[in-house]
Design goal:
It is a single chain. This protein is mainly alpha-helical and 130 residues long. The protein has two domains: 56 residues, no CATH class; 58 residues. Helices cover 65% and strands 0% of the residues. The termini are far apart.
């Protein structure tokens, strides 16, 4: 039975990884780190996960993905004017990081919508991949 499922392509890890990564990026709006973590949680090999995520993110900048995520999943931030509430900005930062975006582009996006962007810290030099 397993041989037959493999033969017709139903048990294909590469196919699964690519479809899963594409769905997480296109439908959920998640970033690279989140999609990689989700694939690894589903026991997809690191190299296969990396390839699948690269294909899913092809031609998309992280800044564009962050802006789309804010627009779609954070309407209170997207609709309002400049945000003056530091707690709201901190919550937005945490949500965007959990969604798999790196700190530099997240802070850049938040600085564009913050009432006092100079109060936001500069990003760390690099993010660690979990």
């Amino acid at each position: 039975m397993i041989e037959r499922l493999t033969e017709i392509g139903y048990l294909n890890d590469q196919h699964f990884a690519e479809n899963y990564a594409t769905a997480r990026v296109e439908n959920e709006g998640f970033g690279r780190l989140r999609v990689l973590n989700d694939l690894r949680t589903r026991r997809v090999s690191g190299e296969m996960a990396d390839q699948a995520v690269e294909r899913a993110l092809e031609g998309k900048s992280e800044a564009e993905l962050i802006d789309a995520f804010i627009e779609r999943r954070m309407p209170s931030i997207a609709a309002g004017g400049p945000i003056d509430d530091e707690k709201k900005l901190a919550a937005a930062y945490r949500k965007l990081r959990r969604a798999g975006f790196t700190s530099g582009p997240v802070l850049s996006a938040l600085k564009r919508i913050a009432a006092r962007p100079e109060n936001l810290d500069d990003p760390p030099d690099e993010d660690l991949v979990g």
